[in-house]
Amino acid sequence: HQIMATTNPASTDAVTSFYFKENNEFTKGEDLTCYYALINNNGLNKAGVVDNDEDALLRAQVLTETRTSVFAIAKSDAPLYRRFNNTALGESATDGRDSLRFFENVRKEYLMDENNREGGLMDANVNYVGMWTANKATGLAFQIDTAVINRDNGDIKPQYLLSVAHNDFAGTDTIPCTEADGTHRDENGNFVDANHCIHAIPGKAAFERGKYVVSFADSAAANGYKKPYTDVTAGYVRVGFVEAIKQADTLWVLTDEFKALANDKIDFARLQAVNDSLVATGATKIKNVLTGVNHKNYTWSFRYVNPEAAGNVEEEGNANKFLFESNNYDGEKIAPENGSWLKIQNGCVVLTKNPSYFSNAKTGGDGALIFNVENKEDDQLATDNEEIATSEVTVIAQQGAVRVANAAGKKVVVSNILGQTVANTVITSDNAVIAAPQGVVVVAVEGEEAVKAIVK
Question: Which CATH number is 78-171+206-384 given?
Answer without folding.
Answer: 2.80.10.50
